[in-house]
Amino acid sequence: MARRRVPRAVFDYLDGGAEGEVTLRENCRAFEDLTFRPRHAVALAECDLRTRALGLDLSLPVMLAPVGYSRLMHPGGEVAAARAAGRAGTAYILSTVSGHKLEHVQAASAGPVLYQLYLMGGRAAAEAAIERARVAGFAGLVVTIDTAVAGIRERDHRNGMKELVGPDVLPKVPFVPEILRHPGWLLGFLRDGGIQPLPNVVIPGQGPMPLLDVAAALAASTVTWEDLEWIRAAWRGPIVVKGVLTAEDARRAVDEGAAAISVSNHGGRQLDGVQASVRALPEVVAAVGTRVEVWMDGGIRRGADVVKALCLGARAVLCGRAYAYGLAAAGEAGVDRTLEILRADLDRTLRLLGCPSVAALDRSYLNVPKSWQ
Ligand SMILES: Cc1cc2nc3c(=O)[nH]c(=O)nc-3n(C[C@H](O)[C@H](O)[C@H](O)COP(=O)(O)O)c2cc1C
Hints:
By secondary structure, this protein is an alpha/beta fold. 42% of the residues lie in helices and 14% in strands. The protein is built from 16 helices and 14 strands. The strands form 4 sheets. The protein has an 8-stranded parallel beta sheet. Strands 1-14 form a two-stranded antiparallel ribbon. It has a two-stranded antiparallel ribbon with strand order 2-3. Helix 4 packs parallel to helix 16 and helix 13 (247-255) crosses helix 14 (277-288). The longest helix is centred in the C-terminal third of the chain and has 33 residues, at 321-353. It is globular and about 60 Å long. The protein starts with a helix and ends in a 6-residue tail after the last strand. It binds flavin mononucleotide (FMN). The site of flavin mononucleotide (FMN) has 25 residues, from helix 2 and helix 16. Flavin mononucleotide is lined by residues 13-14, 27, 65-68, 95, 97, 116, 144, 242, 264, 266-267, 269, 297-300, 319-322, 324.
């Protein structure tokens, strides 16, 4: 539905990955290497899907990942996604690259909202956003460490995505007819004011950062382990490090004070050729799983994927594209539907496994290939 509803340039921005998209494909495919070991002939009155992540009570072990500029997919964007997450009893993580003010996103949701931090715009801009997020009552800070520069997403280049978000959109003939074929999307986009600067990246003396500056700003403001110290001091709350793929980085993140880690390759949008997130999960769980919560994201498309990640030791997962497709297809109702599908999948998979709760999932429910041990 999303593919039909939005212009190709927008769909490809959402759907695509870096370079040859090897990691993007592998994120989903790797789940196929794991097979279930069910316990049959077990009657379960109820399956308990609840979990606790970062001290937050969640009605299901799936949170919504930060997805930059969701407002391009639907005017409701980040506000719609946060509201749907809250309604489903789970958490929403707001990207720094948000089209909506962080205060509005927090106020819209009945559930917890976390803030994902990039340092674009420099330390002063980041400190201002951290302070606003703290005052607004955000439940955690997610620091993404895999974006030293923006990955090259070749589909975006082919589609002229840079021009689409720039001021010179009209003369770019190849994709203008494509956009005109989606009048519903176009009307919503124009009514929403078109592309606007980023309201949560406010550079002192300059104001909100224009969307076009994002790639250069990311490259100019790589987050380092040393930065975690002042980020922690400014935030004064729990920090999640997102983008860990090795035991070494996991240990370093914990030593620097992370309360949780998200094993992630950014949905295959950054360094192409790294292994699937779920494949990296056992290594990270073995390294730090007794000290902090381990989350993962990348390739979650069905409830069965969530169950497999939990069997390998993840406390919860984040989904990105799965809900972004819903948002592009039908706005807030589409995100509601995504979460309903995942919840129904989870319940059914647990019943078919003969497992009473997500908390009871462990490796005994999985065949894990020898090479993964
Ligand atoms: C369109 C899009 C934009 C994204 N923007 C961000 C972002 O701004 N910050 C971030 O940390 N991760 C971002 N991500 C990565 C997601 O948070 C998450 O790691 C990834 O989508 C998980 O893979 P999945 O899409 O297979 O679920 C983005 C992902 C997509 C698809």
